[in-house]
Write a structure and sequence with these properties.
- Helices cover 37% and strands 29% of the residues.
- With 130 residues, it is an alpha+beta fold.
- It has one domain.
- The chain has a 7-stranded antiparallel β-sheet, with helices on both faces.
- A hairpin with a 3-residue loop joins strand 5 and strand 6.
- It starts with a helix and ends with a strand.
Length: 130
């Protein structure tokens, strides 16, 4: 089973039926945005960081939802797997325990003017796009 299929199955099991895969060209853009934000370069400004090492994924999700303030569509990228979908932020974050696993997964979510990186070390970083 391919990576894309595994992630699509995770989405389906989490009840997210409106996710749609992102095309390859846009995937490359998302990868470069995630890297730039994590390295503190480019158009990304760190707003807030959370050390989630002692927290549950649901705690990280609540923190992120409070920063977003509303549900919106975003591109959601599983960085190591190089796979992304467009999905509702609320749908993804409310099911974060099913969609992100500490250790192997880095998850990048990008909206119109913001980015959220939840890395494999359980550090969540919220960025504004300049």
């Amino acid at each position: 089973m391919g990576v894309a299929q595994v992630i699509l199955e995770r989405l389906a099991q989490a009840g997210i039926v409106h996710g749609s895969p992102v095309n390859a060209a846009h995937l490359a853009d998302l990868m470069s945005h995630a890297v730039a934000a994590s390295e503190g370069v480019g158009d990304w400004t760190l707003v807030q960081r959370l050390d989630g090492g002692d927290l549950l994924p649901s705690d990280i999700a609540r923190w992120a939802m409070a920063l977003l303030r509303s549900d919106q569509m975003a591109e959601v990228l599983w960085v190591p797997q190089r796979f992304a979908v467009t999905a509702s932020t609320h749908a993804v974050l409310s099911r974060l325990d099913d969609l992100w696993y500490p250790g192997p997964d880095d998850l990048w979510m990008e909206g119109r003017d913001w980015g959220l990186l939840i890395d494999h070390n359980e550090i969540a970083s919220f960025f504004n796009k300049d």
